[in-house]
Amino acid sequence: MRGDPLLAARGLATWYELRRWGFLHQGWVRAVDGVSFQLAEGEAVAVVGESGCGKSTLAKTLLGLVRPLRGEVWFEGRRLGGADDWRWYRRRVGYVQQDPYGALPPFMSVRRILEEPLVVNGVSSPSKRRARVVEALEAVQLVPPEEFLPRFPHMLSGGQQQRLVVARATLLGPRLLVADEPVSMLDASVRAEVLQLLRSLQQSHRLSVVYITHDLSTVRHFCERVLVMYAGKLVEQAQVTDLLREPKHPYTQALLAAIPDPDPENARRLRPVPPGEPPSLVRPPEGCRFHPRCPAAIPGVCDRREPPDFEVGAGHVAACWLYEGARTVTAAPAVEGGGSP
Amino acid sequence: MRGTLRELVRYPSALAGLAILAFLVGISVYALVAIPYPEAVRLWSGGEAAWPRNPRNARPEWLNWLWGGRLPRTLVVHSPRVPARERDLGSGVREVQFDLPFEYRYRRFPTEVAVFVYADYQEQAPQLELSWRTPTGSELRLADLTPRRQDIYRLSADAELRRNLGGAPEQMLFSTADRPGEAVPGRYTLTVRAFLFEPGSSVRAELVVYGEVYGLAGTDHLRRDLLLPLLWGTPIALAFGLLAAVGSSLSTLLIAAVGAWYGGWVDGLIQRITEVNLILPGLPILIMIGTLYSRSLWVILGAVILLGIFGGGIKTYRALFLQVKEAPYVEAARAYGVGNLRMVAVYLVPRAIPVLLPQFVTLIPGFVFLEATLALLGLGDPVLPTWGKVIEDAYRAGALYVGYTYWVLEPAFMLMLSGLAFTLLGFALDRVFNPRLREL
Q: What chain A residue is nearest to B265 in terms of C-alpha separation?
């Protein structure tokens, strides 16, 4: 990893409380449960995993939309504790959402949409705001800006809408961009265009990006590093090339095997798919959370003890007992299962 | 907004609604400008004294078109400036005589006859002798009187005259013995002979033969011109309806948004208050306020708004806001730092405007009718001339049984017109906004 990390998460846990009759405690949904990682300045990292593994909750936690129950978030060497820290932090983070149309208030014009973050963050001079808005529109190639300013979201195409969302996310000059499946609702033709835009913005502004996706095929263009998430935990972290060439964790291997290849042979071949479904996040399995579906599970080990992060290569970490011999990176996360905080 | 307006005028019903509304607003402006508020209150609550020369319960004049001009109009005859004859009787006594002639052209009888006397004297009032001459030439001594400085002598109410004539004076004086049920058209003359006892004193008289029609709107049982409450009722009704609708629906919207956004105990409290309020019967509460506290229109308006704040609308809007609250754009706004108040006011509430606006417009006539209902129950504002008060008076006088249909129909027509305007407009607005509602 290069230099000081811009963002560091340590043992981050975001649990949602389940209540009965609106007040009786019934349990927790452990959407994010002990996640630690670092993100360098200008680095793009992908978080992959299947639906319901806690990716979006991680994104919301990183945006400060949901407060973590435990764990720490450090940003630019500052620990985010009180509300003031989070407010300070929010100005430095941009958010690109999945559904571009839903992400834009339908009753506001493009101009209002882009001015809102400026108004909220204290840019009170209208001429300054207008200049920033025009600049932002040009940066995402919504040109000529004058033509787009009075339009409403429903008058834009899907790709234009998503570019507007990107413009809004980068308007305040953030250091970090959290993109939650930014292209999954777009047409394939528009996808590449939006990804390229994100990539070029990232490079020109030295933005760090957390790119959340379930689609490994888009990760290659975009990110240096990949975090694989399963049932609220990170199971593997590696450089993109390493991960794709040599996935260590059985879950990652299964995930990679599921990427469709444009190979006609596929029609005649049945791929091995891990049996079962992702586990319940309310009562996750004991030990390694993947063990009930894992083809390589070691009885007596995987179903008893939670695996720590083992360093399986340079900058390659996997939380799996198969690599027990390797050096552990960190002690197992601060959060041991069970109990309320 | 401009787009909405442009779309709106494509609907004929909206155009009709807007036209009626413009008409009502025009009436309101005219009423407020032409009859200032204190004047309106004086004329309305001054009762009969404010309109002595108006006939009682007269129909609107334009009804004469249907009746072929057979309904008599009110005639007012002033005494001449210079008396026809003046004679000095010596020892300071003068005799003055003048005629008040008029042409009566109707077969129907007048409703009343009265003589307004204005006597100018220091101590000793003059004495008057009134006599009546019919077109057939017969002459009749009506009465002798000693008037006060300003006096009204109502022939129709003179019991002695009635006895002498053997029937209602306004009929007997206008008919002949051979055709008792019909007035004889022609020239009638009232002769006033006055004896003045002071050098500087004088006397003037005015004969009023009350007809059966009056003005554009007719009169009520207190001789008041109904045009006054019909004109003045318009701004009052519009203001009451509009304020009540704005007050209750805007506050409802805001409260629903606040409840939905903050959730938790705030939402719970708002919901419980609403549920309790929904079981409370509004009309009895208003009746209690009107009876025990004040019948002022503005107090009632305040009560209506208060009762409406936690109305059923809260449930509808809350459902809408709970949905909007989860919208990605709200999440995005939180991410770029929008605070709670701005979120409610700028991000949630505008989303409900398309739902609110048509509802709001169709809500207005309900409040206008409520004002009329309260008036009918005797809880109308005691001083303001409103449509509801006219209906109440008509109802108390049994107008429909006696045949004064105009008295009920005129205010009812105004109520209907205002209801129609807002309903037409509301339906059109609903159609304009409905395609967008599907996007929610």
A: A22
> Cβ contacts (< 8 Å) between A63 and chain B: which residues?
335
Chain A residues with CB-CB distance to B353 below 8 A: 107
In this complex, the residue of B332, B337, B350 whose CB is nearest that of residue A107 is B350
Q: Give the pLDDT band of residue A270 (cuts 50, 70, 90).
A: low
- Window 420-439 of B: residues touching A by CB (8 A cutoff) are 439
The sheet carrying A78-79 orders its strands as: A24-40, A5-20, A70-75, A78-79
Instruction: Look at strands A44-48 and A208-213 and give their pairing.
Output: parallel
Contact A103 B347 (CB under 8 A): no
Write out pLDDT tens, residues B283-317. Answer: 899 989 988 998 888 999 999 999 888 888 899 89
At B1 the pLDDT is: 62
Alpha helices in chain A (DSSP H): 55-63, 83-90, 110-120, 126-139, 145-148, 158-170, 188-205, 216-222, 240-245, 250-257
pLDDT for residue B235 is more than 90: yes
In chain B, what are the domains?
2-45+224-437 (1.10.3720.10), 72-210 (2.60.120)
pLDDT over 80 at A339, yes or no: no
Task: Report CB contact under 8 Å: B351, A107.
Answer: yes
The more confident residue out of A258 and B368 is B368
Cα–Cα distance measured from residue B390 to residue B372, given in angstroms and rounded to the nearest whole number: 9
Please state the rounded mean pLDDT for residues A237-255. Answer: 88
* Domains parsed from chain A with CATH numbers: 1-90+224-277+316-341 (3.40.50.300)
Between chains, do A172 and B439 touch, taking CB under 8 Å as contact? no
Q: Are A103 and B350 within 8 A, CB to CB? A: no
CB atoms B328 and A99 under 8 Å: yes
Residue type, A322: L
Mean per-residue pLDDT of chain B: 89
CB contact under 8 A, B327 and A90: no
